Amino acid sequence: MTPKVYGIYGSPPFGAVLMCANVLKIKINIEIVNILSKAHLKEDFVQKNPQHTVPLLDDDGFLLADSHAINGYLVGTYGSKNDPLYPKDDIKRRALIDHRMYLDCGIIAARGFVITRPLGLDGIQPVQPSFDDLKEGFATLDRQIRQENSKYIVGNELSIADFSITSSVTCWGVFVKNWENEFPNIKAYIDRMKQEAWFEVHTEGINAFQRFVNAKLQVAL
């Protein structure tokens, strides 16, 4: 049975799953859940995912939420043995990948959602401290990339953490004024990721996110 992913273009975590599936060459069925119209709060979806978030994976009845968890599952299920994307046996590399994903979900994505969730669902405009917090998160990421000093976010092999970081930066970066000049390590990293074949599947999401911001944001950055 073909795995199904519930989500919406413009959701950074949904974009991360699309990129991972592309690299693994997994055919997936996409079911759009329009979170802007609060479709994720409908009872039938909440029964599938009590967190009422997207993306949500349905793999032959196995339901899993959160893009980081989904991508780890996809590699473990459909990837090669000890796949460097998220290796089973290389504990140190796996721990570093986990760290970068926690950096994403605990700092970058968490601070991004502080801005976009109330903006998208209730039209509540963000305040300057929220922009400042996200910018500080970008500063943390910039230092991490500088310290790593490698092609990817963990060494010189692609990992599932790259999908999360790439998706978050290319979407929520719209709220970090002048980030491409202020954070040169992130800029160089994203430029490298844009050269990867898998990045193409995320472009529709980037465009959708920008349309969302153009339609909803009323305050100056």
From TrEMBL:
Signal peptide positions on this chain: none
Output one GO MF annotation.
Answer: glutathione transferase activity
Q: Which residues form the GST N-terminal domain?
A: 1-82
GO terms in the biological process aspect are: glutathione metabolic process
Report the domain of life of the source organism.
Answer: Eukaryota
Return the InterPro entries for the record: Glutathione-S-Trfase_C-like, Glutathione-S-Trfase_C_sf, Glutathione_S-Trfase, Glutathione_S-Trfase_N, GST_C, Thioredoxin-like_sf
- Where in the numbering of this chain does the GST C-terminal domain appear? 90-217
State the Pfam families in the record: GST_C_3, GST_N_3
**Which SUPFAM superfamilies does this UniProt record tie to the protein?**
GST C-terminal domain-like, Thioredoxin-like
Q: What quaternary arrangement does the UniProt entry report? A: Homodimer.
Name of this chain's protein: Glutathione S-transferase
From what organism does this protein derive? Dendroctonus ponderosae (Mountain pine beetle)
